[in-house]
């Protein structure tokens, strides 16, 4: 190719690159910038020409940079959300997408990074969270009143209710309980994402908490003859947590293990201290398990599997999202192991209280 043709092709490519509304940046595998478009410079608050030759760590933290080359070589892009640090000290939320290219002239393998400004998305999220919080809060009172009136009606001996009417009332009570759970879950999510969630950390006896929850939740296991066991001793049972939030975490995991189990199955709750000063709690079941694709999204808000056995059960898709948020906000982490058709084990850790 002649020099003039090469220059025209380069100019054409540069023009097209600068017309792309999202930021685009070509880097070597160490993050050194080889080429960058105008939008990327604007997002970073810097002159694009000045960025060339520098490192992407100049404007965002690369500590957790998703540049696992072996994974990227499989052809799938990787994504993460980062914060761009700009010269005026402002911070910009950005979604970074990485893609490996294996034949960049003069470099060999290189990364193409695209940058999407998330500012508007975050603002919309804030408005949406505010709406959900207000709506759920306003729903809570009338729904609670409905439950109270139904309970009073069934407990009042002055009313003689026939079997058909009694069945209707019981179904109304069950529906009201599900509605209250939905409203409570929506409120919890809204509090978490709007900064209203209040957590008071203090020593809590996790073992006693587990025993109490298993007694309360026993009625959920009876219809399908599911055995619920608590294995473990009382040693190292005090954890630093919010008592109400810990109860919510354990209740969510145990009720899921019962709900998505097989008839005659087993749920086992166990715990042990680890070597890092944490109590690790496991909730294992012999249920339907999760396939590889479902495992990627299990903690996603409002997500539910398309498996028939899952859809047959009532649910909001919020339980595991809430569990993860609460555990992490109390200084722990949550993880799981699962195999489709073989069951799942969900585990979480929380810091042990001093003196155990």
UniProtKB/TrEMBL annotation:
Domain PAS span(s) in chain numbering: 9-53
EC number: 2.7.13.3
Catalytic activities: ATP + protein L-histidine = ADP + protein N-phospho-L-histidine
UniProt subcellular location: Cell membrane
UniProt keyword Ribonucleoprotein, yes or no: no
TM region(s), chain numbering: none
Location of the Histidine kinase domain: 134-354
A GO CC annotation given for this chain: plasma membrane
InterPro entries: HATPase_C_sf (IPR036890), HATPase_dom (IPR003594), His_kinase_dom (IPR005467), HisK_dim/P_dom (IPR003661), HisK_dim/P_sf (IPR036097), PAS (IPR000014), PAS-like_dom_sf (IPR035965), Sig_transdc_His_kin-like_C (IPR004358)
Enzyme class (EC, first level): transferase
Keyword Cell inner membrane: no
Keywords attached to this entry: ATP-binding, Cell membrane, Kinase, Membrane, Nucleotide-binding, Phosphoprotein, Transferase, Two-component regulatory system
CDD domains in UniProt: HATPase_EvgS-ArcB-TorS-like (cd16922), HisKA (cd00082), PAS (cd00130)
GO molecular function, one term: phosphorelay sensor kinase activity
Protein name per its UniProtKB record: histidine kinase
Organism: Candidatus Uhrbacteria bacterium CG_4_10_14_0_8_um_filter_58_22
């Amino acid at each position: 190719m002649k020099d003039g043709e090469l220059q025209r092709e380069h100019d054409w490519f540069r023009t097209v690159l600068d017309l792309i509304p999202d930021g685009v940046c070509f880097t070597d595998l160490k993050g050194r910038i080889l080429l960058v478009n105008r939008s990327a410079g604007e997002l970073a608050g810097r002159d694009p020409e000045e960025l060339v030759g520098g490192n992407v760590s100049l404007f965002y933290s690369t500590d957790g940079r998703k540049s696992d080359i072996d994974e990227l070589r499989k052809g799938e892009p990787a994504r993460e959300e980062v914060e761009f640090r700009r010269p005026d000290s402002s911070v910009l939320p950005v979604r970074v997408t990485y893609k490996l290219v294996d034949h960049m002239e003069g470099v060999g393998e290189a990364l193409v990074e695209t940058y999407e400004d998330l500012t508007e998305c975050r603002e919309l999220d804030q408005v949406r969270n505010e709406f959900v919080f207000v709506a759920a809060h306003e729903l809570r009172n009338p729904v609670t009143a409905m439950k109270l009136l139904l309970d009073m009606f069934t407990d009042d001996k002055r009313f003689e209710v026939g079997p058909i009417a009694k069945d209707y009332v019981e179904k109304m009570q069950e529906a009201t309980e599900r509605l209250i759970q939905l409203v409570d879950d929506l409120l919890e999510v809204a509090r978490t994402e709007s900064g209203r969630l209040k957590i008071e950390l203090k020593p809590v006896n996790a073992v006693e908490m587990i025993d109490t929850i298993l007694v309360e939740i026993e009625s959920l296991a009876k219809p399908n003859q599911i055995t619920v066991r608590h294995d473990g001793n009382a040693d190292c049972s005090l954890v630093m947590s919010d008592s109400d939030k810990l109860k919510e975490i354990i209740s969510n995991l145990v009720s899921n293990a019962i709900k998505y189990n097989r008839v005659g199955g087993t749920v086992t709750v166990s715990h042990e201290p680890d070597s890092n000063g944490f109590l690790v709690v496991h909730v294992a079941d012999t249920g339907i398990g999760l396939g590889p694709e479902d495992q990627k999204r299990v903690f996603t808000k409002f997500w539910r599997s398309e498996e028939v056995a899952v859809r047959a059960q009532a649910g909001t898709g919020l339980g595991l999202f809430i569990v993860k948020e609460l555990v992490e906000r109390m200084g722990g982490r949550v993880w799981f192991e699962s195999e489709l058709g073989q069951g799942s084990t969900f585990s979480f850790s929380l810091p042990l209280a001093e003196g155990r």
